[in-house]
Structure prediction request, 199 residues.
Amino acid sequence: MGIFKQNIIMINIVLFGKPGAGKGTQAEFLKIKYNLIHISTGDLFRNNITEKTKLGILAKSYMDKGNLVPDQVTIDMLEAEVDKNPQAKGFIFDGFPRTESQAKSLDAFLIRKDIKINFMLALEADDNELVKRLLNRGKSSGRIDDQDETKIRNRFKEYNKKTSPLKTYYKNQNKFYSINGIGTIDQITGRLTKLIDSL
Ligand code: AMP
Prediction:
């Protein structure tokens, strides 16, 4: 438990990976084990859609096609969510940042609070496995963006073009760690916690 033994008060993790990589599933375990607040921008948008807010209506027009929602509304929403949790011991950012502009905004925002991202944990799995997982999830969740392979592949395209370069962004800060995202949920949780405890 290196990072905790050193008495670092906050731990902030970026959970990274393509749609279907298991970010949300794993965040549920990690937030309990390390007492963190889980912020999923996808979930926040979906809540706004359910509540039919202005932000939800705007976000839906992008999400239904598998496109990214514009940076500034996403950044504003994320910052508001962090500000709602002033007592947090740390955050798991799930699905954010997804562009270099979001990553830079997040760094600047955290610096103003005198905190920082400790590491980015990237769950890796190949596209065909992810398509299978997402189509399955689409059947149970009813998520429109999970039900159509063309939309799923468009999300991968968005990821490859805009999100994947963030690996280099965090590698340059020595914060990037890759985790094999293929296996049972328990196996992958085990890999993540072993890694976090060694950092
Ligand atoms: P997710 O639940 O993380 O798979 O996100 C579902 C959809 O929400 C994405 O395909 C985007 O349309 C939108 N979204 C979530 N997070 C972001 C983000 N950080 N930037 C832009 N769009 C996002």
Summary: The chain has ten helices and five strands. The longest helix spans residues 127-141.
